[in-house]
Structures are given as structure tokens and as C-alpha cells.
Amino acid sequence: MSIDFFKRLSMMVMLVLLQALVLNHIHVFDCATPLLYILIVLQFSTAQQRWSALLWSFTTGLLMDIFSNTPGVAAASMTFIGFMQPAILRMFLSKESIEAESTPSLKELGWLKFFSYTFIITFIYCLLFCTLEAFSFFNIVIWAESVCGSTIITLLMLIAIEKIRE
């Protein structure tokens, strides 16, 4: 077992507990909920093996489903963005960075690329999560407010965390 495994495990436990105990009870304008646990997926490096990324993503989503009473919604959404993350990250990295096994960060990517990378992952996650949670487009206005609001509040919190880590 490497130190990276224990760092990722402790971060996953901390984010799941923070989400379950605090952030799930925050509903800005009754529609936007911050979903910080996607930080796990955002920090996969280019060297992360595909099966490992999917396993970490699924496990985090499953734990969130257990604590949030959302049967399969978070697990499916997290697994999907865990699958898409390497392709999205490669859009913003140079060939040298991909070969050098870089981890996405504000310092590594720069402001615009990091913001774009984080926005795409966050938007895809919120879109899939809110769609699966609502499981219909009956009230499309509430659905759109949830997707946009959750994306914005999650994105702002993720950027703030990254700025602090910098």
C-alpha cells in the first residue's frame, strides 16, 4: 500500500462525511446543493489507471448513496465522470504534461484551463445527477435550476478549495 492510497482514502472519507453531515443540508434557493465529493475525480492524475479511477469513483458514489438515500444516483454519476475524466483532462494538457504524469491543479493548468476543466466535469456530474434524481422532465424549470445552481455553487467551492491548496 502506498501513501497515495491512504491520502486518497482519507480525503474520500473526509469529503463523504462533510457532504453527508453538512453540505446535504444546504439548499441555496431551495434548488442548489454543493456537491464537493466530486473533488475525488477532479484530482486523478494522468498516470491513474482506468480501473482504479472507476473503482474510486464508484466507491465514493456508493458511499454517498448510502448516506444520502439516493439509490444508485451518485454511484452512476460518479462512475460516469470517472470514466470521462481522462478524456476531458487530455483536452487541457500539453503532450509533455500527459507523459510527465501530471495531476490537474490551478498551478499546473493555469486559471482558464483549470476553470474550464472543473466546469465541464462539474456540469456533466450535476446534469446526470439531477436528471437521475428527478427521473423525469415533468418540471423542467426546477430541474434546470437544480442543474445550474448546483453546478455554480459546486464550482465556486471547488475553485476556492483549489485556491487555498495553491
What key attributes describe this structure?
166 residues, mainly alpha, 8 helices, 72% helix
Sketch the major β-sheet.
Answer: none
Mean pLDDT: 89
Counted by DSSP, the helix tally is 8
Based on CA inertia axes, which overall geometry fits? globular
Radius of gyration: 15 Å
Query: Would you count the extended β strands for me?
Result: 0
Measured between the Cα atoms of the first and last residue, the distance is 27 Å
Beta-strand proportion? under 5%
- Name the poorly predicted regions: none
Structural class: mainly alpha
How much helicity do the residues have? over 70%
* SSE string, helices as H and strands as E: HHHHHHHH
Question: Can you lay out the helices and strands and say which pair or pack?
Answer:
Layout: H1 3-21, H2 39-42, H3 50-68, H4 73-90, H5 95-99, H6 106-109, H7 111-134, H8 140-165
Helix pairs in contact: 1-3, 3-4, 4-7, 7-8
